[in-house]
Design goal:
Shape: globular
Order of helices and strands: HEHEHEHEHEHEHEHEHEHEHHHEEH
Family: Belongs to the leucine-binding protein family.
Protein name: ABC transporter substrate-binding protein
Keywords: Signal
Radius of gyration: 21 Å
Organism: Nonomuraea salmonea
Pfam family, one: Peripla_BP_6
CATH topology of the largest domain: Rossmann fold
Helix content: 25-40%
Structural class: alpha/beta
Length: 424
């Protein structure tokens, strides 16, 4: 991890430069949309009546389950365009490209969106490998890469890429929540870990190991897999031999489902199964059979459309109504759709708070969020950032799978307050 302390000075200098007006390196002109202190800043992709955003997702390939996310995003934008006059009078156009979860393809699509589509910002590039492959390019071009769909800690601790920022809780904070749970409930736990062999998997595993330092909880077995692997069955057989009493499943949906199925088949190994948030969707568990995933533990930070707790919740009612209207055929109970709705709503609030309707204005806004409430997030979870804190969400709540849905338990854990700020 990199030192977070370096962010402060660089970010403050960036803010000062932006206030004085920057160079329009994106080819846009300021015109009537940006006057006064906004003069000279980039307005490519934004006019007085429109905003053009680009998203990059694995609509195909091993992580194609995430292709449901942009459906929720588009439904939200279609709703506010039709019924709320967009964002500040600007209708949102959301252009989605498929990278197949392949970093070289992500770079190609980022260039297409920036140079050909002339988008105002990249809103959501999904996956740690794809985002890591594109953020040098977006930062060199001074294009906002906003609320990337990956929890890698580098998006909030790297001072050299001020145009890129995450949204969801980072993987180290998530790991801290699981570590705290085990220290309390199974203080002598022996943990076996399956993880994706990239920055995503290593980030969460590394965070977990640091969080259990000085305790009796220990990692006794580790197995990695590649995203090109057809199956994780061999890794699961090896982990079962460890006889660990906790299994930490650090995977993306396809492999998360495989690991859950392998765990269910092995009647001789019955560990507490913890699955990371990004593979905890109902769409991952359902193919395994709900009877086979009882008692699985995970964490979350946004409302589950399957949870009757939110049945009368105004935002959930609105979400389900508008999904049926603007995304006919999409299953409103798929949490990835809810994720998309929540992150689109977060963009809406950040854009409204931007000091200038420019790329620089958006860049500065997302690093100056103070207790921003987003109605699809769990109560107690807000967006908070600062010049030296590039992590919008760092609060989560544990949940356990019971019957046919997840049930929240315990309290929302603010990892900033519980463990201190995330630093290098």
């Amino acid at each position: 991890m990199r030192r977070v302390s370096a962010i402060g000075g660089a970010a403050l200098l960036l803010l000062a430069v932006a206030a004085c007006g920057g160079r329009d390196s994106g080819g846009g002109t300021t015109g009537t949309a940006a006057t006064g202190q906004c003069q000279g800043q980039q307005t490519t992709g934004i006019t007085d009546t429109s905003i053009k955003l680009g998203g990059i997702y694995p609509l195909s390939g091993p992580a194609s389950a995430y292709g449901d996310i942009p459906k929720g995003i588009k439904a939200y934008f279609d709703y506010i365009n039709a019924e709320k006059n967009g964002i500040g009078g600007r209708k949102v156009e959301f252009v989605v490209r498929d990278d197949g979860y392949q970093p070289p393809k992500a770079v190609e699509e980022a260039r297409r969106l920036v140079e050909q589509e002339q988008v105002f910002a990249l809103f959501q590039t999904l996956g740690t490998p794809s985002t890591a492959a594109t953020w040098d390019y977006t930062n060199q071009r001074k294009v906002p890469q906003i609320f990337v769909a990956t929890g890698a800690s580098q998006w909030g601790t790297d001072a050299a890429h001020p145009w890129t920022i995450g949204w969801q809780p980072n993987y180290i904070s998530e790991a801290r929540v699981y570590a705290a749970y085990l220290k309390k409930e199974q203080p002598q736990a022996k943990v076996a870990v399956l993880y994706q062999n990239d920055d995503f998997g290593k980030d969460l595993l590394g965070g977990f190991k640091r969080a259990i330092e000085g305790t009796q909880v220990q990692v006794v077995a580790e197995q990695s897999y590649e995203v090109t692997d057809p199956s994780v069955d061999p890794q699961m057989r090896n982990l079962a031999e460890s006889e660990a009493d906790v299994f930490l499943n650090v995977t993306t949906p396809k492999f998360g489902s495989q690991a859950l199925a392998a765990d269910a088949k092995n009647t001789k190994w019955n560990p507490l199964h913890i699955v990371n948030n990004v593979a905890a969707s109902i769409t991952v568990l359902k193919p395994v059979g709900f009877e086979n995933v009882q008692g699985v533990v995970s964490s979350t930070y946004y409302k589950d459309p399957n949870d009757p707790t939110w049945e009368s919740d105004p935002e959930m009612v609105l979400y389900k109504e508008k999904m049926k209207q603007y995304a006919p055929g999409a299953d409103v109970n798929v949490p990835y759709h809810t994720f998309g709705w929540a992150v689109a709503s977060s963009f809406h609030k950040a854009m409204e708070a931007a000091p200038c309707p420019t790329r620089e204005g958006l860049r500065d806004s997302v690093r100056n969020l103070k207790g921003v409430k987003v109605d699809m997030l769990l109560p107690g979870v807000t967006l908070d950032t600062a010049a030296d804190d590039g992590f919008p969400i760092e609060s989560m709540q544990l949940m356990e799978f019971k019957g046919e849905r997840w049930e929240l338990f315990g309290e929302v854990v603010d990892t900033r307050a519980e463990f201190g700020p995330l630093t290098g």
